Amino acid sequence: MGTSTTFEAKRKNLAAIRDFVETRAAELGAGVDAIYEIMAAVDEAATNVIIHGYRDGGGPLEVEVEAAEAGTLLVVRLRDQAPPFDPTRLPSPNLAATLEDRPLGGMGFHIVRKYTQRVEYRALPGGGNELTLMRPID
User: Fold this and answer.
1) pLDDT tens across 80-118, in order?
2) How far apart are CA 10 and CA 58, in angstroms?
3) Largest CB tally within 10 Å, which of 16, 28, 42, 124?
4) Distance (Å, whole) CA 120 – CA 132
5) SS3 content of the chain, % helix, strand, coil (to 5)
6) Which long-range contacts (CB under 8 A, 24 or more apart) does 23-30 make?
7) What pLDDT score does 133 carry?
8) Pairing state of beta strands 118-123 and 73-80?
9) 32-48 vs 14-27: helix axis angle to the nearest 10?
């Protein structure tokens, strides 16, 4: 089990969430690229929880960071109590389309996928969501 902290899911706390992930990932021995990429993915995922899950109304957002697979994999879990939503089922955006032909939004989870090796979702017993982001530690 990793180290976790619970934040109020508000936009003003995104910097604190990034700082927590950065500090913990560095403590686990993650390289600069791994830290940058996992922070970008966490920032997008947390923003989605804040805006779409809680609809800017706030709520708990637990962030857990750990190393797995004998210290070779950086794992970040985000847990919330927002209505159930599985972002892993979102379609990938059509990157070949012109900007004028693309719908507004939809790139955030693409960033999450781009900067992680694996993303898993599960609905929590009793309600809420858990999104797990994984990428090599260096």
Assistant:
1) 999 999 999 988 877 787 878 777 767 789 999 999 999
2) 6
3) 42
4) 5
5) 40, 25, 35
6) 24/65, 25/65, 25/74, 25/137, 28/65, 28/66, 28/67, 28/71, 28/74, 28/137, 29/67, 29/71, 29/137, 29/138, 30/74, 30/137, 30/138
7) 98
8) unpaired
9) 150
Query: Tokens 């858990």 belong to which residue?
Result: 130
- Judged by DSSP in three states, 107 sits in coil
Residue 101, H or E segment: none
**Which residues make Cβ contacts (< 8 Å) with residue 127, sequence separation at least 6?**
81, 84
Cα separation, 100 vs 81, whole angstroms: 35
The model's pTM is 0.93
Residue 134 in contact with residue 65, Cβ under 8 Å? no
Average pLDDT over residues 24-47: 97
| Token digits of residue 99 | 């900007």
Give the whole-angstrom CA distance, residue 127 versus residue 82: 8
The 8-class DSSP code of residue 87 comes to: G
Tokens of 79: 């847990």
Contact 11, 61 (CB under 8 A): no
